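Example 3.2
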Amino acid sequence: WFWLENVIFIAAIVLVATKASRLRPQRLFLSASFMAVGGILYRLGAYLIAYETGAGWRYFPSVGELGVSVGLVAFEILAISIAVRRFPILPTVSPEESRT
């Protein structure tokens, strides 16, 4: 898991390594997606796969724990949506530039 996470994080960085690639929305989206997947793999590896409760015990998150996790992800998506609309996060393209 460690190596897979790091390869995904490095791929995300390489995708936006040049200024030209940072101005392309497709590259930004792909890089952000790689970062999200890398973060998910990190959390899964550290807290579910590697979590050893001891002999004779098994652990799986309860419905409440899963609900809190889903709620946090939904809040993060809402916060990013608001931030993208309110602040100049993504590059804007004027109609003249899009015709060329």
